[in-house]
Specification:
Elements (H helix, E strand, L loop, with lengths): L4 H29 L4 H20 L1 H16 L11
Helix pairs in contact: 2-3
Length: 85
């Protein structure tokens, strides 16, 4: 079956997401190894991500991302048994 441009874009996006998860997982492990508490690493990661989104796409997009992540948290998507990695 042939893949259309939309399918290919979705595959590329998923591959990028998986690569990003891998990079962040490695950085997280390095921070823990350096003795940095998980909540400090998490706050730094969130602040960096939101700052970059705000600078490149504006406040509305940053707020939209926060809303999206809040909905995922409430839905239980970040529970250990629901890991997407």
């Amino acid at each position: 079956m042939e893949q259309n441009a939309s399918d290919i874009d979705a595959l590329v996006r998923e591959e990028k997401r998986l690569t990003a998860v891998e990079c962040h997982t490695e950085a997280w492990a390095e921070g823990l190894s350096a003795g940095i508490e998980a909540d400090i690493i998490a706050e730094a990661a969130l602040a960096t991500a939101l700052g970059e989104i705000f600078r490149s796409n504006g406040e509305e997009v940053a707020l939209s991302l926060l809303d999206k992540m809040r909905e995922k948290l409430i839905a239980g998507e970040f529970a250990p048994s629901q890991s997407r990695h």
